[in-house]
């Protein structure tokens, strides 16, 4: 089984990814760590606690970074995920469980040290917690089985950014952290908009989940309504992008993705703030200190959409 830590800012598609992950026998979820992003960190931590409770999970929930590494906190995306970040679902006033006393980065470091070589980090929010973990204990980079990240936009299929013409939301929320994470010597796969926007769960698919999926299906249908309205309003899309679930599926079914290899950097500032760029292996560029010191990472550029939808 894959030992995983789920780093998240729930978030509708985060919640959908977590439900998938925790129903699959392939995964052993060791912790949920939260991070600012879709909403402020207190709100997304509350959501994670509720999700963990509702799903009956044993894994601890640890509160993570409230702000990006070097910038003030953003305003989040209530227009995408609802004012409560979880599609307007009604949550109880008081949470049944409390967060782990340690900050998220500490939980990541502790678990990676406890299970060297065994853990895969699944990161589906801004990358601040991962960057802080590396900052506190750089040697953990050599102790991970893998890092599967929903983030970035490489334009390989004509998909540009979803926040600016070139930047994707998770990366733009903390570009300095993202650059630190993507240039570290751990094996990263990036599931960016190039693939996540190919996987559309349309209204009929969501209705089928709702009708046939029992309690889980009813939850997935209810949590995704507001998100679906956003996609319809903003893009005329009669459905939702599966985004965060792809970072989970990549771990258990890596063969469903086509990859490109080479170092990845993140633009920090200026008109292209938050843009992710890969120097593909074999690219005809002169040697450059901006690229050559950094390890090759894997960027998903194509996906077997039908297989992903069937699996989910
Ligand atoms: C990413 O941004 C968030 O709004 C989603 O949860 C997903 O992680 C997509 O760009
Ligand atoms: Ca997310």
From TrEMBL:
Give an example GO biological process: purine nucleoside catabolic process
Cellular compartments per GO CC: cytosol
Which branch of life, at top level? Bacteria
All copies of the Inosine/uridine-preferring nucleoside hydrolase domain together span 4-309
**Gene Ontology terms for molecular function:** purine nucleosidase activity
* UniProtKB keywords: Glycosidase, Hydrolase
Per the UniProt record, one Pfam family is IU_nuc_hydro
Q: Where are the transmembrane segments?
A: none
Query: Under what name is this protein listed?
Result: Nucleoside hydrolase
Q: What is the lineage of its organism?
A: Bacteria, Pseudomonadati, Pseudomonadota, Alphaproteobacteria, Acetobacterales
């Amino acid at each position: 089984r894959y030992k995983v830590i789920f780093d998240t800012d729930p978030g509708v598609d985060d919640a959908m990814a977590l439900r998938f992950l925790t129903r699959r026998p392939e995964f052993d979820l060791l912790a949920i760590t939260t991070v600012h992003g879709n909403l402020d960190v207190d709100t997304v931590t509350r959501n994670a606690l509720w999700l963990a409770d509702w799903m009956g999970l044993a894994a601890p929930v640890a509160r993570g970074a409230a702000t990006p590494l070097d910038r003030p906190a953003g305003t989040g995306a209530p227009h995408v995920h609802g004012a409560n970040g979880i599609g307007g679902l009604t949550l109880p006033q008081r949470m049944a469980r409390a967060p782990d006393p340690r900050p998220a980065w500490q939980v990541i470091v502790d678990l990676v040290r406890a299970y060297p070589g065994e853990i895969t980090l699944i990161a589906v929010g801004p990358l601040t917690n991962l960057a802080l973990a590396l900052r506190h204990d750089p040697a953990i980079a050599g102790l991970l089985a893998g890092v599967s990240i929903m983030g970035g936009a490489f334009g390989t299929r004509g998909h540009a950014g979803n926040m600016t013409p070139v930047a994707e939301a998770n990366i733009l929320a903390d570009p300095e952290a993202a650059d630190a994470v993507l240039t570290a010597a751990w094996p990263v796969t990036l599931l960016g908009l190039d693939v996540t926007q190919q996987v559309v769960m349309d209204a009929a698919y969501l209705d089928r989940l709702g009708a046939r999926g029992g309690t889980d299906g009813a939850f997935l249908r209810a949590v995704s309504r507001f998100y679906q309205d956003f996609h319809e309003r903003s893009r005329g899309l009669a459905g939702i992008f599966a985004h965060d679930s792809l970072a989970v599926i990549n771990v258990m079914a890596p063969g469903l993705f086509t990859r490109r290899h080479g170092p990845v950097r993140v633009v920090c500032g200026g008109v292209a703030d938050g843009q992710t760029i890969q120097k593909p292996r074999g690219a005809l560029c002169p040697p450059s200190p901006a690229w050559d010191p950094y390890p090759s990472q894997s960027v998903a550029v194509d996906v077997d959409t039908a297989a992903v939808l069937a699996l989910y």
